[in-house]
Design brief:
5-stranded antiparallel β-sheet; Nuclear Transport Factor 2, Chain: A
C-alpha cells in the first residue's frame, strides 16, 4: 500500500512540475516577452537565491491601437523551483511548495512584436504575502501612464466636418 502512495505522489509531482513549462509554452509570444523581462530583472536581484518559472496568469490584456503597436498588461505568478539561481536548462527544475510565489505585473509597448525602450517597460514583482492594495494601485497607475498615448492613432481617423 505504501508503494502505491509513493507512485501516486511521484506521478502527481511530475505532472505539477511539467505544468509550469506547459503554462509558459501556451502563452502568446507578446506575453512571453514580458515574463522573460520579469525573470531577467528577478535574476539580477541579490536576495533571490532560487530559479523561478512562470506559474500562471492572473490577468492578461492588450490594446492594439493600430500601426503594428500593442500595449500589453500581464499580471502573473512566478514560482520557485528546486534549481539554483542562474540555471539555464530548467527542464529538470521542479516547483517548490515551501516558498512563497512572486506576484508580478508588467506593462510595456511593443512595435512589430518587439518591446519598445520608450516608454520604459514597467516591471513590478514582489513576494505574494508582501503585496498590498497600495502596491496594486501603484501598478495600475504606472501602467496607465505607459498606455496614455494609446488613443493617438485614432485621432488620425477622425474627420472635421
Amino acid at each position: 500500500m505504501a508503494l502505491f502512495w509513493l507512485v501516486l505522489l511521484s506521478v502527481q509531482a511530475l505532472v505539477l512540475s511539467s505544468h509550469g513549462h506547459d503554462a509558459y509554452n501556451h502563452l502568446p509570444e507578446d506575453y512571453k516577452k514580458g515574463v522573460n523581462l520579469a525573470l531577467a530583472k528577478l535574476s539580477t536581484h541579490s536576495g533571490v537565491q532560487h530559479h523561478f518559472l512562470f506559474f500562471r496568469s492572473i490577468t492578461k490584456s492588450d490594446i492594439e491601437p493600430g500601426f503594428d503597436v500593442k500595449y500589453i498588461y500581464h499580471h502573473f505568478l512566478l514560482k520557485p523551483t528546486s534549481c539554483a539561481k542562474g540555471t539555464t536548462d530548467s527542464s529538470a527544475c521542479h516547483f517548490r511548495n515551501d516558498r512563497p510565489v512572486i506576484d508580478c505585473a508588467v506593462c510595456y509597448k511593443t512595435f512589430g512584436g518587439n518591446i519598445e525602450a520608450e516608454p520604459k517597460p514597467y516591471v513590478h514583482c514582489v513576494h505574494k504575502p508582501s503585496l498590498t492594495e497600495e502596491m496594486k494601485g501603484l501598478r495600475i497607475d504606472q501602467c496607465n501612464i505607459i498606455g496614455y498615448g494609446s488613443g493617438a492613432p485614432t485621432l488620425l481617423a477622425s474627420r472635421v466636418d
